[in-house]
Amino acid sequence: MTRQFRAGRYVKQPNHYSAFMPEPLPPIPPINIDAAMQTVLSKADRALGRLDGSIQTLPDPDMFVFMYVRKEAVLSSQIEGTQSSLNDLLEAEAAIQDANRPSDVSEVLNYVGAMNHGLKRLPELPISVRLIREIHEKLMQGVRGDHANPGELRRSQNWIGPGGSTLNDAIFVPPPPHEVERLLSDLEKFVHEENDIPALIKIGLLHAHFETIHPFLDGNGRVGRLLIAFYLCEQKILIKPVLYLSHWFKQHRTRYYELLQNIRDRGDWEEWIKFFLEGVASVSLEATETARNIVALREEHRRIITDHFGRSAGNGLRILESLYTHPFIDNRAVMERLNLSFPAAADLIDRFVEADLLTEITGQARYRVYQYFPYVRLFSDVGRESR
């Protein structure tokens, strides 16, 4: 097999267009792990190991996961054209009314739900066609693309190209629909078969191959990116789902799509894998730094509360801990969580505001809502977060 057809070839269909028919994984000839690739693989492995270790030092790893999942949901959805920011998502989850919020925030909320559903299912249902379909159903239910049969493999031909393009002038035409189920079944076997392919390279192969199959009418990119996190958790490479590559893919969006297409057109798996590993290293280092910043922030704010809140310090520390998973709060929430009267809750919130730990975001005289902005800011590099 020549390198050009290493990933597959275009096959003429009865309706006179050509669709891509991928070869099964792993590629033949095998991935060439030359000195350059070995270097970036080692770098990625080390960075991922540091990230896993740093998460274990957090007082509560889940407080990191909570925000990181949401950052990934925003970025992965933005790659597909949504406008919602991290702030939009957090406000929607907190049921804060905002007439200016983009309507597509529901898509980002669905992404969070799909991620959490998949992580919950992994212990009982490993990565499989069934899990992929469940994830897609959660992702696409009731939002843009709902017409695309959530959870159902496509039964018609799709294609990738600029607006107005057709099957005959598309940039890429995935396999015909009658081949999709078989191709996904083969991919499932590859995921679970024992071989000597390094885990991170295997994940890179898995993601690219899934995007080539393009098994759904919509949502393929988001499902494919979710599979990366699921595989890392299933293989226990990470104790928590904290590696999300959408930041890297969004930063290098044009390159991302070019390299995927080069696999199909020229069989160039190696350049894609190097790019993928560079992303793993870069995002791992960023996430490790964020984890360190969370620990430092928490300790600083605990000290401020202990030193300046007087007899309210105990309640202040309890509220602080809750802000790491619910970074928006109002007077009623403080009353309920601490069983306080309205004046006592209002006084405690005032102390947080005076210490610059909370910021009022509604501008209203009544029914005010406050954000734990110093914490949200650690994750807010995805546009429009600070208002």
Automatic annotation (TrEMBL):
Taxonomic lineage of this organism?
A: Bacteria, Pseudomonadati, Pseudomonadota, Alphaproteobacteria, Sphingomonadales
* Source organism of this protein record: Sphingorhabdus arenilitoris
Q: Could you tell me what this protein is called?
A: Fic family protein
Q: Which InterPro entries match?
A: Fic/DOC_N, Fido, Fido-like_dom_sf, Fido_containing, SoFic-like
SUPFAM superfamilies recorded: Fic-like (SSF140931)
Pfam families assigned to the protein according to its UniProt record, in alphabetical order: Fic, Fic_N
Q: PANTHER family per the record?
A: FIDO DOMAIN-CONTAINING PROTEIN, FIDO DOMAIN-CONTAINING PROTEIN DDB_G0283145
Coiled-coil stretches: none
So which domain of life are we looking at? Bacteria
The residues forming the signal peptide are none
Q: Which residues does the UniProt record annotate as the domain Fido?
A: 127-278
